[in-house]
Amino acid sequence: MADGPTDLLPAEDDPAYQVFIDSLSYLTPEEIELVREAYLFGEEAHRGQFRQSGEPYITHPLAVAGAIAEWQIDVEGVVAALLHDVMEDTRVGKAEIAERFGNPVADLVDGLSKLDKIEFQSQEEAQAENFRKMLMAMAHDLRVVLIKLADRHHNLQTMAAVGAEKRRRVARETLEIYAPIASRLGLNTLFGELQDLSFQLIYPMRARVLGRALKAARGNRRALLSKTLEGITDKLKATDIKAQVFGREKSLYSIYRKMLDKRLSFSQVLDVYGFRVVVGDVPTCYLALGALHELFKPVPGKFKDYIAIPKTNGYQSLHTTLIGPYGTPFELQIRTAAMDNVAQEGIASHWLYKDSESFGVDLQQKTTKWFHSLLELQSAGGDSSEFLEHLKVDLFPHEIYVFTPKGKIIPLPRGATAVDLAYAVHTDIGNHSVIARVNFNLVPLATELTNGDRVEIVTAADAHPIADWLNHVKTGRARSKIRHYLKTAHRDEPTALGEKMLGQELRALGVAASDVPVARWKSVLRDSGNRLVKEVYTDIGLGFRLAGVVARRLLSKEHPPHLSDKSDSSLVIRGTEGMAVQFAPCCQPIPGDPVIGSIWKGKGLVIHTHDCPAIRKARRARPAKWIDVEWAPEPGQLFNVRLLIMVQNTLGALGKIATEISSSGTNIVTINMDDKHPGLYTTLRFTVQVSDRTALARLMRSLRRIPEVVRIAREQGLPA
Ligand code: MN
Prior knowledge:
This protein is of the alpha+beta class and 720 residues long. It folds into five domains: 11-158, Hypothetical protein af1432, CATH 1.10.3210.10; 211-352, Beta Polymerase, domain 2 (2-Layer Sandwich), CATH 3.30.460; 373-488, Ubiquitin-like (UB roll); 525-631, no CATH class; 639-714, Alpha-Beta Plaits. A hairpin with a 6-residue loop joins β17 (667-674) and β18 (681-690).
C-alpha cells in the first residue's frame, strides 16, 4: 500500500487504522492514547507474522478491536482486543502486559488465551451446554466473551485462504458453540452473521444458489413489498404516530434451516415477509398495533406481547401477523428504539446505551445490573428457572469446571480436590484412586483443583479409600461414599485410626490408654449404646464421635454428665454430648455448611467451616488436631449469619430490604451501613438468624428480586 520509507513505520497512516481511531470518540483523549500505545505494542509484537491471506497479522487484532469499539466497550476491552493474540503467538507474557497496560487488561488477554486452548471435543448438545457454562465461568467478565465472538467473526470473514477442512471445522464449531452464545446474549445481528458466514463456509454451493434465488424472489415481489410498506407508513402518519418502518431481511441460514426442519419449499419459506416498526415509547407501541390491526386483518392466535412478558434474553417487542394486500400474510414487529437496540445488540447495547444512571459505574457492577434487570423482567412473568440455571455460574461464582481426559466437563464446588473429582466421575474410580495427574503432572489426591484443569485419576485394583480423605473432600457425594466404604468394607482402618486418636487424647490428659479402668469403659459403652470398645474406636475414626469427648468421659468421675454441664450448642454437632461447643465468629457456620472442629483448652470444641480462611494455616500445621464433624441440629435452632448487600443509593432501599427480611420470618440482629462513600451504591451489612443453608438461600433469592439490590453475598472471614 504505502511506498518508500513509510513501509518501515507502524501503519499509522493506514486508512483502516485511521477509521478505527476515529471510532474511539467515546473514550477520553488519555484512553485513546493508551489504545494507540497498545496498537504500536501489538504491531511490534506481531511484526513479521502474516495472516494466511498474506496481510500483516496486526490487521486481524485491529479489526477485532474495531468491532469492540463499535459496541463502545471501555478502554480495557479495546486494548485487550488489540492484544488478544500476543500471548498465543508471540513471546510477550502476561507480566509484561500487566506492567504496560494494567492488570485488568492482562487478565482479559490471559482469559482469551485460555479460551483458545480449549479444544471442543464432542458435538453433543449436552457438551455444548457445558462449554457455554465454562465460557461464562471463565468470563466472569463478559468482555472476554464479547472479544472472543468478535475474534471468531473476523476469522470467519477472512477464511478464503484457509484449507477446506479447517474452514469447515471452524464453521461447524461456530454454529454449535459461538452462534448460540451470541444468541443467548441477545447479539442478534452478530448471531445472524456468524450463522450465514458459517453456512457459506460449510455449504458454499447451497449458499450461492439460495442467495441467488432469494435475490430474484425479492425482485419479483418488490411491488407487493413496497405497497405494504407504503400502507403501513401512511396509516401511521394518518394516526399521528412517529415511527420508522423497516422491511425485515431473513438470513440465508435461517431460510435454509426452515426449509430443512419444516420440509418447506423455497417459495413457501419466502412467502413469510417481515416488517419492523420502531416508535418512541411503550404506549405508542400499542397505539401503532391498534392502528395497523385496523388497516390489515390480523391472523388469529399469532399475537404475542413480549413487552409485557419479555423473552429470557431480555428481548422485548410486540409480534403479530397480518393479512397484507392480495391476501399475503406478513409478520410485524413493533417496539421502541431502546428495545430495538437490545434486540440487535443484546448485552452489548448495555454499553452502547449511556444513561446518566450507569455512567461511571464499574464494569462488574454494570454487568451485574444487566443480569439483574433481566432477572427482574423474569419475575414479572414467564418461566425463570431455565434462565436462572444459565446464570447460576455468574451469580454463584463458587463453582469450578474441570476436564476429564475424554473432554467431559465436570462442575465442582470451589476448593474441591482430585478425590472429589474421582467420586464425581464414578464411585469405583473414587474407591480405587491412587494419585492424580493434573495438567499432565502427577500430584497427590488431596490437591485442590482450579478452573479449567485437565484431571486424570490413576487407579489400582487393590487401592482403597483411607479415613484421611475425609479431611480433603468438599462434595457431599465423596464424603458419603468414603464413609460408606470405610464403614462397610474395611472396618479395621477407621478402628485403628480411632484407637490411635483416642490414645493421643488420653496421653494429652496424662493417662495411658491401658490405665483406663474397665468400669469407666463399661459406663461409656452403656451411655453410648455401643456393645464393644472397638465400635467406639470405629465411631471416632469415622468422625461420628470426638476422641476428646470420649477421652474426657473415660476419665470423668461422675457420670453421666449433668444436664447443666451441657452447653446448648452441644446438641447441634453429632457426638459431642457433654462438651462445650462454640461456633467460630470468623466463618459463622450454619447447618448445611461442611464443618470441622478442633478442641481448645478452656473453649471446648470450636467449629469452623471447611473453607474458613482463618484456620488454613493451623490445619496445615497440625492436621491431626482437626476433626471432621457432622451437624445434627434440633429443629427450631437459629444461627447468626452475615449478609453483605450492595444496593442502589435510593431512598427507601434499606426499608424495602428490612421489610423483605422480616416478612420472610427472619430475625435481624444487626444492621450496618457504609455511608463513608456516598455514591450510586451503598453497602449494607446485616446479621440475620437462619436455621440452615436452605433457609439462607431462600432469603437471598427473595432479596435479589428487589430492584435496588445490585449484589448480595454471605460474608465470611473476620468481621470488619
Ligand atoms: Mn484472534
